[in-house]
Amino acid sequence: MRIRKFLAAALSVFVIGGALPAMQTASPTSTAVAYDDEYTTLEVGDFIFYVYDDHAELNYVEYNASGPITVPAYAGGVSVTVIRSFSFKGRKNITSVTLPESITDISILAFYQCGLTSINIPDKVTKISESAFDSCDNLTSITISDSVTSIGKLAFSNCKSLESITIPDSVTEIGNQAFFKCENLATVELSNSLLTIGTWAFDSCGSLGSIVIPASVTRVHSAAFHNCTNLKSITFLNPQCEIGLAQKNSYGEYYFIRDDICNYYDEESGHYIYDGVIRGYKGSIAEKYAINCNRNFEAIDDEIPLTTTTTVVTTTTNTTTTVSSTAAADTTTSSVNTTSNTDVTVSTTNDQNNTTTTVTTTVPTVTTPSTDTPSPSCGDLDGDGIIDSSDASAVLVEYAAIQTGSAPTVDKSVGDVNGDGFIDSSDASDILQYYSFTQTGGTATLTEFLETL
Hints:
3 domains, Type 1 dockerin domain, Leucine-rich repeat, LRR (right-handed beta-alpha superhelix), 15% helix, alpha/beta
């Protein structure tokens, strides 16, 4: 058995290196070889699988495989759930890969330097691993399912043909250098649940012209947009979003590193140059960064997102009408009780600086029963019964308003989810983490979930 395991390890090394001539000329017939008690290897056509009792993992693809490739959903009678590291490494002649919906894990460097032009990430994958699609020079189309919560380090780096990417709202983290040197990447739509953007995440994306950092983002790490030669506009919707290596000095003032957002390095002046504009709220960290690094800043106070809360209250009014009539010497008085229903709609619109309340009263001609509107529960700021990214955005809007001196409009029992006595970006972060947890099948309540953090 020890010899068998040694041979299995040696074979694995050759597979990783892409140097296994015998496999490249293997017969398309299916064969199975037992290496140890944990799994068997199964060869089916261009594929070699590791087959376990409850699942199978794709370990190797014929080096000379070409054209569109479809990975089988089953191998050895069990579901294929894993694309192992280096499975498609260097397969330059493969143009596209169709993965089965059973796939849950795309491992490190799985498609490194593969020739594929398009890929759809299956619905059960929650993380795109480190360098999974690194240096896929021909990759132009990526569809990321809304089950994915994390894009790993170097996941799509050096994908030189990629021109656009939409990151679904399930994603909360973009790792370091995730899109490093994607030279033709011109359009990026970020997740509204995104929390962090890693170091050098979009470094050297020379075609990127503008980008909006959603209100959910709490940290853009150092040099995330370094050497983006055509970047002309970057907008920060979270006024408290931290940028790069920002630090506070002993006076509580921020200071920054100039190359976190830049177009190029000017050797003559010795400075990192950014010719574009940084957009954000007045008094925001984005403004402080722009001033500190001598960047152009544009305030977006007139574009602050609004939240509107509408409450419909049904009231019942009892009216007593006295009708008097005279018959001879007798006076008859009768009382008639009439009931009417009045709908009072109270709309409250909040922005960073003002609160406007509008009251509209409507008296319908048809009597309707009175109903009670339930109060929002903790974390559910919009009262729709679901705790999601819209609630996190509402928390950030409330936080921005409070920071600029406006009176609070959200009850702490609803907005202060972590119970620290403040409604701020940390509450938004907790809500987004909980939303991501529920999107991947979690059933605990918000309170139960927060106890695990």
